[in-house]
Amino acid sequence: MSSRRPRKPVDAHFRGLPGRWRPAPKGKKSDNLMEPWILERGLELEAETGQKLVCWCEVCGVAIAQSGNKETLDHLLGTPAGDGWEWSEPLGPDLLTASVGDHRHDDDVEDGLIRWYRLRAIGTWKEARISTVADMLSNHPYLTRGGFPVPSLAVMNDALLRGRHDPPRAAGIEFPPLQFGPEAWPDLRLELILRRPALVETDIPDDVTTMDGLDQWWDDKLGSFSEAARAHQRHLIFSAGRDMDGLIYESPEWYAAMAKVNALMANTLMVLENYDS
Question: Are 19 and 57 in contact (CB under 8 A)?
């Protein structure tokens, strides 16, 4: 008998398109990891439409189906029409995205909250969350990196306008495109720092206005210190992290050790400057 715990089914959404798209059944073991109602509804739609579906919108029922030509990346866009369905001509990836339109359907989200999705590192699934904007941003992959600077307003707005960050072979995030004005940014910035205490507080040059630019500026900034200083800083963080081995998760001792790791990362520049001086 296997000693593994059965996995809890996932309330999965389809990763490939923005919005509330549910993944259609694939007939693979991965189907068993999704909540049963998603598979049941997907099978019903496939029987109803006579098409092999890729995904379907959980709100308005619009569906994406395979074109039948395995040599292309074309898909069919299906819209419910009376007792039947209307299907588009085969659409390539760019035309499909343009034709699909906005299927976020966020009218049911309360004021002050936002629906966003965690993109799984592997597979075509994403998982929905509803939270405050600050909580969503604290889960943005850019802001979960310890020892990385707190973005400026210009850089943050660049990341927010994209509405998606999907790094290869890593968890990503999807959200409605946003922009913040200078009056809202100070409070949000402070909340981000409180939620992510391993971020580095430092002045970002005015000419750095994008996330890519911030990455390059930060790499250049760290590269200005000696290799010995950077090795020393890495050793301090590694040693502090090793002290967490064997501690009970979320115990007082674990939190104390985590606070030490966060403090070392947040003070990256101070540690490097002190070593080189």
Answer: yes
From edge to edge, which strands make up the β-sheet containing 75-81? 21-23, 53-57, 63-66, 75-81, 84-87
pTM, two decimal places: 0.85
Angle at 169 between CA 8 and CA 179, to 5 degrees: 90
| Structure tokens that stand for 109 in this block | 């989200």
**In whole angstroms, what is the distance from residue 62 CA to residue 85 CA?**
9
Look at the block and give the residue holding tokens 């750095």: 208
Distances (CA, A) of 72 to 53, 66, 68, 108: 16, 10, 9, 37
Over the stretch 44-67, which tens digit does the pLDDT of each residue have?
999 999 999 999 999 999 999 998
Tokens of 206: 């005015």
